[in-house]
Design goal:
alpha+beta, 111 residues, 30% helix, 3 helices
């Protein structure tokens, strides 16, 4: 996960999920109905500039050209970022594309 260090905005990204921001997503993007849950030991490290993995995640999400533009905007707003790394002790995945919570399944079935 990565987030800006100076508090101007918040952006978290995981290599296995799409980016989520306080702002709005481009209207052509559709969020997936999956949630990654991680429990474990977290470590925060302040880094100078925009880390390579942040730039790569932006290009994967926004496409290459728009991803580069996004990273340039981030660089203009913040000189440091905080890298949050988690050593998982437990990982779970909520997949609402293939499996609904039991209460929703019951409501869909008319129970």
């Amino acid at each position: 996960m990565l987030c800006p260090h100076d508090g101007l905005f918040s952006l978290l990204s995981l290599s296995v999920s799409r980016c989520a921001t306080r702002g709005s997503f481009p209207s052509k993007k559709v969020l997936k109905n999956k949630v990654l849950l991680i429990r474990g030991i977290a470590r925060v490290e302040t880094v100078e500039g925009v880390p390579a993995e942040y730039a790569a995640a932006a290009q994967r999400y926004f496409a290459e050209e728009q991803g580069r533009a996004w990273v340039e905007q981030v660089r203009a707003m913040s000189t440091h970022m905080a890298r949050i790394s988690v050593r998982p002790t437990w990982v779970g995945l909520l997949d609402f594309e293939t499996r609904f919570p039991s209460a929703i399944e019951a409501a869909m079935a008319g129970s």
